[in-house]
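Justification of computing resources. Each target in the renewal requires a structure prediction run like the one illustrated here; the chain below, 199 residues long, is used simply to show the kind of job we budget for.
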Amino acid sequence: MKKPTVKKARRRTGRGALVLIASLFLLSGLLRLGDGTGEAIAKSVESLASSPPKEMETPICETPAGIGELLSDLQEREKRVAEREEKLKDRLQVLAVAETEVKNDLATLAKAEESLKSTIALADTAAEDDLARLTSVYENMKPKAAAALFGEMDPEFSAGFLSRMRPDAAAAIMAGLKPQQAYSISVVLAGRNAGIPTR
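Resulting structure tokens:
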């Protein structure tokens, strides 16, 4: 039975120590309140409540005097650059239109050139056909009648036809010409290729 009494005594001493510590804290608080510490704490709380903290105040940004002018100059320059870009865009559009027109004109000129070439080729062919037909007519004429006709022609003109004729038909016509006319035509025929380079 002695054991249970020992436990009770230990419990009482533990409770007594807690009561003693709590009493000391209470006494300390009362001393501080009476000492003026409480008033100081209350005043600092009031001052914090009445004025906002410094970090919450918005700072006033002061700009140097030249910044406004610099900003104005930059805005003016940006405006001029934008105007130049617009002018360049307009010029590029004009150039693109002109380039398209030039290409169209070149295509039209190329078509006209091809048409002209074919017309010239057709005219050359027609002229060549006409000369061949006329030469054939002179070859088939009687030599005496052809000689009378060739005697009236200019020597260079008649030499052109005689050079295209068969040799036997040309010889028959030359034989019917007066000697001076035959000589003039022969000089023209002989001198036709004299100016051509041999090498």
